[in-house]
């Protein structure tokens, strides 16, 4: 477990990046109580399904599906 030092955002890159993405939808200081859970879920879905450079600009879901397909190799028939 890692705890970043106070006032050291460079130690929390994922957190800071996510905050930046969220601020595209909700400026700092926005009262989230005015948004429905459906609205908040839609924003979460949009952020979670963004293409990632580390995945060759594919979405995490695409990479996951590709991994699942690679595990589903056809069975080999055997005779006894």
Question: Would you give an account of this structure?
Answer:
This protein has helices at residues 13-25, 37-48, 60-71. The chain has 80 residues and is mainly α. It has a domain at 31-71. It is extended.
- Gap between N and C termini, in Å? 52 Å
Tell me, rounded to a whole number, the average pLDDT: 87
Total DSSP helices: 3
Outline: extended
Please state the structural category: mainly alpha
Rg (C-alpha, Å): 20 Å
Strand content: under 5%
Largest sheet: none
Task: Give structural attributes.
mainly alpha; extended; 80 residues
Brief characterization of the structure:
The chain is mainly alpha-helical and 80 residues long. The chain has 3 helices and no strands.
Secondary structure blueprint with pairings:
Blueprint: H1 13-25, H2 37-48, H3 60-71
